[in-house]
């Protein structure tokens, strides 16, 4: 049908207008064919972080479901380094054909405020596909810590340079949410950055650092095993998986923060391919078996569409950009 329409249009026009129309109609036809045929080969999901981390876990939990729904092999490719910016740069430079995608977490929204010379511009070069999952964060201390309650912790942080807190790196959500907490409490802590969640948790377990605000999926097993003590959660209300742990908002009204994972793609991905991809991700996340597995690990299914994902990134960038400037947070 598209070829017949194109031929008829060409016969009815002459000269430059004819050529312009031919190009426009050919592009339209090509776009339809791409959307209809996609995916015709392996789809790669670039995870710009190390294997075993939060984003990697979500990627591998949805990998088989996406394979089933797309009827193509789905590969997870870990490209860690420079706070996720190396792998994200690879996504931004990839062809916008739907075959190279990415999965990022909350720090993606704040990269431009922390890294002065990124090899890409998020708003220009990348687009959201799905706001996949989110999870509250939890203030935790070692099991041997003298801080038994949130009040104990707040009281200790009133003394400058007394209480240290771990993060997975400068500008990470661990640091930003901790600094937001100290801002709300009118106190302070000593930032101790690590190169990843593994080293940070290991030092926390060994009581080499006093505290950490980390995502629920990361610390839940250690809390359940009695190796870490949870003092507060950053969701507006208490979390059903830690019902005895108060919300920070019970003490500081309106306090709320989540760690989240999203799928992104090169910005010029064809709209029809983006729509098809977003629908496949949503269906995968809402699969009862996959949703149960993610929930048990501490995640809340969101399954937001591309528009909602882009709004999340924009809102988070504005919120944390203000804090980064106010608290003078830089690469250390």
UniProtKB/TrEMBL annotation:
Top-rank taxon: Bacteria
Pfam families xref list: TctC
UniProt keyword Signal present: yes
Matches recorded under CDD domains: PBP2_Bug27
Region forming the signal peptide: 1-35
Keyword Signal attributed: yes
InterPro entries given in the database record: BUG, Bug_dom1
Alphabetical keyword list: Signal
Family in the record: Belongs to the UPF0065 (bug) family.
Protein name in UniProt: Tripartite tricarboxylate transporter substrate binding protein
């Amino acid at each position: 049908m598209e070829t017949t329409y194109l031929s008829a249009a060409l016969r009815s026009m002459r000269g430059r207008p004819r050529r312009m129309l031919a190009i426009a109609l050919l592009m339209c036809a090509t776009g339809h064919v791409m959307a209809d045929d996609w995916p015709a080969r392996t789809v790669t999901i670039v995870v710009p972080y190390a294997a075993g981390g939060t984003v990697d876990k979500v990627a591998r939990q949805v990998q088989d479901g996406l394979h089933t729904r797309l009827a193509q092999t789905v590969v997870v490719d870990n490209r860690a380094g420079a706070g996720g910016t190396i792998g994200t740069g690879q996504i931004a430079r990839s062809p916008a054909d739907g075959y190279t995608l990415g999965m990022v977490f909350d720090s993606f929204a704040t990269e431009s405020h922390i890294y002065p010379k990124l090899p890409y511009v998020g708003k220009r070069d990348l687009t959201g596909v799905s706001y996949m999952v989110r999870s509250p964060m939890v203030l935790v201390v070692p099991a041997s810590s003298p801080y038994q309650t949130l009040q104990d912790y707040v009281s200790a942080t009133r003394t400058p340079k007394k209480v240290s807190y771990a993060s997975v790196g400068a500008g990470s959500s661990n640091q930003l949410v901790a600094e937001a907490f100290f801002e709300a409490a009118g106190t302070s802590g000593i930032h101790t950055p690590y190169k990843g969640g593994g080293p940070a948790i290991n030092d926390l377990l060994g009581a080499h650092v006093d505290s950490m605000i980390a995502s629920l999926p990361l610390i839940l097993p250690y809390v359940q095993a009695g190796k870490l003590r949870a003092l507060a959660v950053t969701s507006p209300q208490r979390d059903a998986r830690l019902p005895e742990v108060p919300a920070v908002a019970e003490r500081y009204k309106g306090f709320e923060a989540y760690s989240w994972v999203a799928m992104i793609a090169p910005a010029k991905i064809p709209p029809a391919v983006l729509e098809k991809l977003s629908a496949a991700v949503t269906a995968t996340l809402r699969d009862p078996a996959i949703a149960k597995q993610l929930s048990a690990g501490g995640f809340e299914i969101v399954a937001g569409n591309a528009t909602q994902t882009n709004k999340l990134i924009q809102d988070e960038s504005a919120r944390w950009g203000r804090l980064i400037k106010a608290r003078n947070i830089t690469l250390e």
